[in-house]
Amino acid sequence: MNEYLVWLLIALVLGVVISNVMVLKYTAKLKWPDAESPKTKDDSDQNTETKD
């Protein structure tokens, strides 16, 4: 194989690995919304107390 091709492949692999690490570090800092299910309009109107 050509020596330049080997260096090009090494640079591409290093670039992919480094960019993936950078993306993982960035997404680790993001704050995601809570996993609670969103309440519908009907759910918010209901009372837990029973009316007799």
Task: Give a brief rundown of this model.
With 52 residues, this protein is mainly α. The chain has two helices and no strands.
Keywords:
mainly alpha, rod-shaped, 2 helices, 52 residues
Describe the secondary-structure layout.
Elements: H1 3-28, H2 41-45
The oligomeric status of these chains comes to: single chain
Mean pLDDT: 82
Q: The biggest beta sheet, please?
A: none
What is the N-to-C succession of helices and strands?
HH
The parts where pLDDT drops under 50 for at least 5 residues are none
| Rg over CA atoms | 26 Å
β-strand number: 0
Beta percentage is under 5%
Structural class: mainly alpha
N-to-C CA distance: 86 Å
Tell me the overall shape: rod-shaped
So how many helices? 2
Percent in helix: 55-70%
How would you explain this protein's 3D organization?
The chain is mainly α. 60% of the residues lie in helices and 0% in strands. It has two helices and no strands. The protein has helices at 3-28, 41-45.
